[in-house]
Amino acid sequence: MIYTYSNTVNDILKAGFLYCHTKNLPIYQKEEEHSLFIHEKIPVSQIPWSEILSLNKGFPQKKKELLQDEFLKLIFLNLRHKGEDKYPLILQGIVEVLNMPLKVWLTGITDVGKTLEKRKGIVAREIHKMVGFIRFVPIEKDFLIGTALLEHQTADLILINFRKRYPSYSLGLVLQDKALVLNKDNTFSVEDGKKYLEKITKDQFHKVWKEYYNSQYIEERKNIKYVQKNIPKKYWHWLTEGEIILSKK
Q: Which of 15, 182, 243, 244 has CB atoms 3.0–4.6 Å from 5's, for a disulfide?
């Protein structure tokens, strides 16, 4: 019997417990069609927690331990990482935690734990950077849209962070040819991004900001290392400030 799971935290926790008990690696649902297994497949969502916890007398206490915010956040942010190996890696991390105290595991005592902690930080930093760098353009009444340069699956989390600043607006991010929109009622919708790109490129603030930034630029105080610390080089071609930095190099 092979278990399958979706990309929700609850599903992957269930899959981790079952992996620990059966030693058979569960399969991510979107990878089912590529699996060579012909065994019966059961989604973990169909298995109640009570049944899973009854498999091992230590499981009930371990579940309480794993429901701490720190561990749940680690799993949640790792699920947003771009790594193709993220699902089996997270499952292995859950198995490790089921076999040692969580506090010990969180110190990075295992290679898997170190990797998951590192990836959590990478995803969290992308969200933090984007919240600081993204500039919205008003294109309709109560509708702001911008662009984002993302490596990971963070667009919705970024928009949720912006909701605190703009509680009464619809907010959108253009990602290549698609736009993710956080509507006023806090639902998400995916739209054609091309229709917004032209409006964004016509925004006059880009020109004004560039003129202002150039007026403040002092050649003698140029410090590329300091700039890179605050504005990573991978964003230079995307940000107005980055364009100026590149032109001054």
A: 15
